From TrEMBL:
GFO/IDH/MocA-like oxidoreductase domain mapped to chain residues: 134-251
Pfam families attached to this UniProt entry: GFO_IDH_MocA, GFO_IDH_MocA_C3
Protein family (similarity comment): Belongs to the Gfo/Idh/MocA family.
Protein's name in the database: Gfo/Idh/MocA family oxidoreductase
UniProt-listed InterPro entries: Gfo/Idh/MocA-like_OxRdtase_N, Gfo/Idh/MocA_domain, GFO_IDH_MocA-like_dom, NAD(P)-bd_dom_sf
An example Gene Ontology molecular-function term: nucleotide binding
NAD listed as a keyword: no
Amino acid sequence: MSRKLKWGILGCAGIAKRAVIPGVHMSEMNEVVAIASRDENKAKQTAEELHIPVAYGSYEAILEDPSIDVVYIPLPNHLHKEWTIRAAEAGKHILCEKPLALTAAEAEEMADAAEQAGVYLTEAFMYRYHPRYDAIKELIQSGAIGEIRGIRSAFTFNNAGDSGNVRYRKDWGGGSIYDVGCYPISVARLLLGKEPDAVTVNAFFSPEHDDVDMMASGLVDFGDVSLTFDCSMWAASRNPLEILGTEGIIEVPSAFVGSGNFYIISRGERKEIQVPNVNAYTAQADHLASAILGESSLLYDPKDAIANMKVIDACLLSAREHIRVVL
C-alpha cells in the first residue's frame, strides 16, 4: 500500500495508552498521528510518552484535522454516542470502545450516522481478532467436541478501591455488565452464530459505588444451549471460557486477555492447542484498515454491536427488576 492510515485518539484513557496505541504502533497498515484531551498538557505528556507527533487540547481538533482517517474512541461509555456521531459527520472511520453505547437504541443512532456518512464503525472487542478464535470455531465446526450443550464464561477483576473510577458512575454507564460482562455475551453469540431468546441475571448493586452492579451472574438462553456467566469489578481476576460438547470440552483459561494457548478434552485426553503469539489490538487495527482500503469486508459491523447491546439492555433490566427478560 502507498501509505498507512492515520489514526487520531480521542482521550488518554488507560486502555488506549496501555494496549490500543501500542497495538496500532506495531501495525504495518496504520499509524497514530494525533491524540486529544480536554487537558492539553495531559495530551502533550501522553503524546511524548507514546511517540505521537501531535497533541490537541480538544476532541474537536482531531475531527477537524483533514489528515486523520480513523478515530479511536476510548471515552467513558456515556460519551460514545456523541463523539461517534460527530466523528462520522466529520468523515472519519471509527473504532469505538465496548460497549458501543448505553443502549441498543443509542447504538442504532450511531450506526445510522455512520451509514449516512459512508464511514466504517466497529466495536473494539479485540479478542475476536486473535487467531485462536478461528481455531476454536474450526474445532467446533469439525465436530471435535460433538454438539455444543453449554457455554460457561466469566470476566472478573477487583478495582473497587478506586472510588473515583469512571466505572463507578451510574450515569456514565458504569457497572460490571457494561464493562466486562459484555465479553462473555459477545463470545457466546460469536461461537453459536445466533441471538439469544431470553436472559435472567442476578446482580449485587453497591451503594458505595453509585449503585452500579459490582457483580452479576446470569443465564443467557439460546434455546437448546445456554451461556452461564458472571462478571465483577469486585472479585479476584479471571477470564475463562469453557465450551461443553457431547463428545468433549474446549477450555480457554484466558479467553479475553493475552494470547495464551487453549485446551481440548476428548476421549479422556487433554491436549494443548498451540496458537500464534499475535497482538489482538494490532490485528483489530489491521482488519479495520483492510476493510477501509477495500481489501476485505468488515467482520463485525454495527449490526453486531446493536445485537450485543440488546442483550446487555435485557441483562440490566433483569438484574434491576428481578425478572426473566424475553428478547
